[in-house]
Amino acid sequence: MKTESNNQRGFWGSRMGFILAASGSAVGLGNIWKFPYIVGQNGGGAFVLIYLVCIFVIGTPIMLAEFTLGRKTNRNPVGAFDQLKPGSSWTGIGYMGVLAGFFILSFYGVVGGWTFAYVVKSITGSVLAFPSPKEAGEFFGNFIGNTGEVLFYHALFMGTCIAIVLRGIHGGIEKACDVLMPTLVVILFLLMLRSLTLDGAMEGLAFYLTPDFSKINANVILVALGQAFFSLSLGMGCMITYGSYLSDKENLTSCTVYVVIFDTLIALLVGMVIFPAVFAMGLEPTEGPGLVFSVLPTVFASMPMGHGVAVIFFILLAIAAITSGISLLEVVVAYFIDQRGWQRKKAVLIVGSAIFAFGIPSGLSFGVMADVKFLGMNFFDHIDNIASNYLLPLGGMLTAVFVGWVWGTKNAHEEIEKHENEFGFPWAQCWEFLIRYITPVAVGIVFIAKFFPH
Ligand code: PFF
Fold first, then answer.
1. CA–CA dist 328, 434 (Å, integer)
2. pLDDT score of 450
3. Which of 110, 230, 268 is the pocket-test mutation for ligand 1 (most atoms within 8 Å of CB)?
4. Structure confidence at residue 183 (pLDDT)
5. Residue 26 CA: which ligand 1 atom is closest?
6. Can you tell me the distance from the alpha carbon of 252 to that of 243, in angstroms, rounded to the nearest whole number?
């Protein structure tokens, strides 16, 4: 029975609240910070195209599957699989998801901290003092190498996520998402107009939108796939967890479509802001994690009322990071509440602190630990790589197999249609086909190609 007295859990206050919260989880640093720099590193337009295919062919069906599992079971990822196939090893997918949430938030919190710092630095104007992205990039490099400052802001970010998740679903998470999302879109539009009117912008647009398939190999496809999962918050049961707070009367298919479209539009829009500016300002698109932090301050500095726009932008970026950070934290917390019977307060405080502590080496990866490398990557990159490029796609693939073959699309279909929501021809057939055949096979092929390169 779904009752509010299911007290440590709670429910969304409205359908719009749910869509905004799920979009809040999806839209975050993945769209604004990560998407542009990996597009830049992986060759531009062709990567974008493959990313879009991954979003629509693989990500969208899995999102619907995750919402359905969550609403059906009212559980965290471990509990959800356990409820449908008690005592089976399918619960392993859930555990993998909880682990992925723990890993991702550990480095996500570090970058979240960077955004907090940039809110402060844009208010004081210090980030706007540079005539070119090169100097802005050096300023950023110095900042992320400063142990005290990085850890301070990292702690502040994690503390904020903890404070919100402590207040639960409806009071905390939902309210935080309501205002932010629409404002973010408006600001991005303004920035796009500025970027596109810079001298030399068209070269950047060509890099971003013209596919050059010679740049594609198995690794690039795996990164695109990982980014699709990361950006849509899939493959680790985050959307199972959010779906578990959803009431029976909501239409799961339309929620899925809104969230996917919104998330994808934001990412594409961010590319339209960043790449014209990168090329116009003579920067390399392969710059890496500092890309957005070097390019945007210079764009702000070159526009009318740039100071105000910069402050608003970094505040929104920080909030977008928080609304995703809380969803990552909630997955791990929900596991301890549902499966271990912990009180919300205890779960949030212990889990939040543990994730912060585990994130410290990621925070130091661009400073005192920059030379601690294994296989050419620092700690931060390893955790990101393991979680985003392996745990998420693997989790997503197994979720698809579970829903398509083990629990079965018939059961899933019933849950989707529970409240007179028509999920009929051709969409239902199309979804079933994708979730049973295409999604698992496509992810499987990418993995095989990655591990057995010819
Ligand atoms: N989707 C978030 C982003 O793009 O920033 C990151 C994320 C949140 C990934 C929640 C996974 C997740 F479960």
1. 27
2. 76
3. 230
4. 76
5. 1
6. 9
**Residue matched to tokens 């790589």:** 385
CB-based pocket (< 6 A), ligand 1: 25-26, 28-31, 104, 230-231, 233, 236, 238, 324, 327-328
Q: How far is CA 98 from CA 4, 335, 405, 411, 412, in A?
A: 24, 7, 23, 25, 23
Report the atom number in ligand 1 closest to the C-alpha of 28.
Answer: 5
Q: What is the enclosing helix (H) or strand (E) of 413?
A: helix 409-416
Q: Give the pLDDT means over successive 10-residue stretches in the chain (454 positions).
A: 47 75 92 96 96 96 96 94 96 97 98 97 93 90 97 98 84 63 82 91 96 90 93 96 83 92 95 93 88 89 85 88 93 94 96 98 97 94 93 96 97 86 85 96 87 70
What does the block give as tokens for 13? 């206050």
Q: Which of 104, 268, 399 to mutate to test the pocket of ligand 1 (most atoms within 8 A of CB)?
A: 104
Q: What is the pTM of this model?
A: 0.93
- Structure-block tokens of residue 87: 């005592």
Nearest Cα to Cα of residue 34 among 304, 315, 194, 233: 233
Sorted by sequence, the CB contacts under 8 Å of residue 242 that are 6+ apart come out as 18, 21, 22, 25, 67, 70, 327, 330
Q: What gap in Å lies between CA 416 and CA 377, rounded to an integer?
A: 43
291 Cβ neighbours under 8 A, 6+ residues apart: 36, 37, 40, 274, 278, 283, 285
pLDDT at 448: 86
Distance CA 408, CA 405 (A): 5
Tell how far the Cα of 386 is from the centroid of ligand 1, in angstroms: 15
**Topology classification of domain 15-449:** Amino acid/polyamine transporter I (1.20.1740)
What is the model's pLDDT at position 3? 39
Identify the residue whose C-alpha is closest to ligand 1 atom 12.
233
Q: Whose CA is nearest to atom 13 of ligand 1?
A: 233
Would you tell me how many other CB atoms lie within 10 Å of the CB of residue 3? 8
Write the CA distances from 294 to 110, 276, 404, integer angstroms: 17, 14, 44
Give pLDDT, residue 176: 62
Sign of the CA dihedral with 235 first, then 398, 434, and 72 last: negative
pLDDT of residue 14: 72
